[in-house]
C-alpha cells in the first residue's frame, strides 16, 4: 500500500487547490524547565482556515481519505495562536494525512466541518469546550464536558491552574 | 387516528444500564424514539490538563484510569507515542510480552462487554457472571506479572516493568485450553435464545457509509462491514508477524457487533498461540537497558495509535523540550463511538436504547476524561 505523504499532498494541492496552502512559520514553543527554546517547524500541510472545508472534502472525495480520526487543538501562547490538526486516514490502510490550520487567539473562528462530515461533531464540541474555538455554522455548538454556565476555557495555557473561584461563593 | 404528543425524558445519569454516569435526553412519541442526545461529562476531570503538569513517566499510571477495563492497551498506546517522540528502541522480547498482554486485554474486555450487553437485554446476571469468571482468570495473570489486577501500570518506555514470572506460562496455557469452550458457550447463549435474538437482530442498524462518516472505530465499525483494523491498516509493534483475520459483520446491527466481538476473542487466542511459539526465540530482555525513564524529548509532535479493544486509541503529544508534555491529547474510541448514537436509536423503542448503547461498549472513564 503506497499512500501519499505530506510532501506529495502539498504537491497535489499545489495543482488542485493552490490558494489553500500556507507556508508554515516556525513556532516558539516555550520551554518551561530551562530547556533551550528552539523554533518548531511542522512537517504537516498547513492551510488557510477559510479553505478548510474545501481541502477536507478534496481529501475525502478525490483522494479517498474518508476516515476523520482526530481533531487536536494546541495552544501556542507564545505565538498568540491556536493550531488545529485534522487527521485523515484511508480506509484501506496506510499512514495519516494531516491538515493543520492556525487561528489567532483573540478571534478563534474556524468553519465547522460537522455539516458535511458528521464525525467531526464531538471533536469540535470538545475543542469549543476546552479551548473556546468558535466553529461557525456548527449545528449544536454547546459545551460537551463542562456545564453550560462555566466561565473560561480550561485547556488554554493562561487559564489559572490554582484556586477555585466557585469555592466560598455561597458563604 | 389518536392524536399523539412528543415527550422528552431523561435516561440516566443514574441508571443501571448506562455503564456509568451517562445521560440520554430522549424525545419519544409513545414508545418510539424521535431523537436522542447523549449528555456526559459527569466524570470529567480534565485528564489532559493534569497530564500536562506531570512528567512523561508520571502519566503512565494515569493512563490506566482512562479505560479502566483495558489498562494494558492504554499503557501501550502512550508508551508507543513517547518512544516515537524520543526515539527509544524496544527489544523483541518486550514487544512479544506487550502483544501478549494487550491481546489478553482484548479477550477480557470482550468477555465483560458481551456479558454487560446481554445483561442489558434482560438476561439478568447469567452471562455477565460467565464473562466475569473468565475475566477473573486473566486478571490473576495480570496480577502475577504486574502486581495489580486492574490498574496494571506495567509498561515502561522501552519495554515492560518486569519480566514474566516463572509460573505465568503454565497458567496461561491452562487458560487457553479452556478458552474455546467458553467462547462457544458465550456465542450459544445468545444465538440459541429466541428471545434474546429478537432483541438483537435488526436493532440499532448502522450502515457502512454512515459508520465511516461518523468516524466510529473498533467492533462497531467492523460490525457495519468495514474491515478496518489498525493492526492491519497500519501495523505497529510486531503485528505484521502474526497471522490473524479481521472479522466483519454484514448488516451492522447489535447482533453483528456481538458476533464480531466473539470472533475477535478467537482471533486474539490465535495471536497469543503464535506469541507462545515465537517468544522463546525472541532477542533481548523485557526492557531496553539503555532507555531512560525520565525522558526529555526533543521539540516536536507525534501521534501514535493502537487498535484498543474498543477502537482506535491514539495519543497526540507535543514536546517543548522539557520533561513535561506541552500538549497531551487522547483520541478516545468510546467517546467518538458515541457520536452516531442518536441516529442508531431513531425509530426504535425505548427498551432498545439500552441494548444499542450496550453494543457500542463504552467506558465513562474514557468518554469523559
Automatic annotation (TrEMBL), chain A:
Plastid among keywords: no
Coiled coil: none
GO molecular function: NADH dehydrogenase (ubiquinone) activity; oxidoreductase activity, acting on NAD(P)H; quinone binding
Key words of the record: NAD, Quinone, Translocase, Transport
Reaction(s) catalysed by this chain's protein: a quinone + NADH + 5 H(+)(in) = a quinol + NAD(+) + 4 H(+)(out)
Broad EC category: translocase
Ranges for domain NADH:ubiquinone oxidoreductase 30kDa subunit: 47-164
InterPro entries: NADH_quin_OxRdtase_su_C/D-like, NADH_UbQ_OxRdtase_30kDa_su, NADH_UbQ_OxRdtase_CS
EC number: 7.1.1.-
Family: Belongs to the complex I 30 kDa subunit family.
Protein function: NDH-1 shuttles electrons from NADH, via FMN and iron-sulfur (Fe-S) centers, to quinones in the respiratory chain.
Protein name: NADH-quinone oxidoreductase
Source organism of the structure: Candidatus Viridilinea mediisalina
From TrEMBL, chain B:
Domain NADH-quinone oxidoreductase subunit D: 125-285, 292-369
Protein name listed in UniProt: NADH-quinone oxidoreductase subunit D
Role, per record: NDH-1 shuttles electrons from NADH, via FMN and iron-sulfur (Fe-S) centers, to quinones in the respiratory chain. The immediate electron acceptor for the enzyme in this species is believed to be ubiquinone. Couples the redox reaction to proton translocation (for every two electrons transferred, four hydrogen ions are translocated across the cytoplasmic membrane), and thus conserves the redox energy in a proton gradient.
Membrane topology: Peripheral membrane protein
Substrates-to-products reaction catalysed: a quinone + NADH + 5 H(+)(in) = a quinol + NAD(+) + 4 H(+)(out)
Domain of life: Bacteria
Keyword NAD listed: yes
Oligomer status and interactors: NDH-1 is composed of 14 different subunits. Subunits NuoB, C, D, E, F, and G constitute the peripheral sector of the complex.
Enzyme Commission number: 7.1.1.-
GO cellular component terms, semicolon-separated: plasma membrane
The family this protein is said to belong to: Belongs to the complex I 49 kDa subunit family.
Keyword Thylakoid applies: no
Localization per Swiss-Prot or TrEMBL: Cell membrane
InterPro entries: NADH_Q_OxRdtase_suD (IPR001135), NDH1_su_D/H (IPR022885), NiFe-Hase_large (IPR029014)
PANTHER family the record matches: NADH DEHYDROGENASE [UBIQUINONE] IRON-SULFUR PROTEIN 2, MITOCHONDRIAL, NADH-UBIQUINONE OXIDOREDUCTASE 49 KDA SUBUNIT
Annotated Pfam families: Complex1_49kDa
Keywords: Cell membrane, Membrane, NAD, Quinone, Translocase, Transport, Ubiquinone
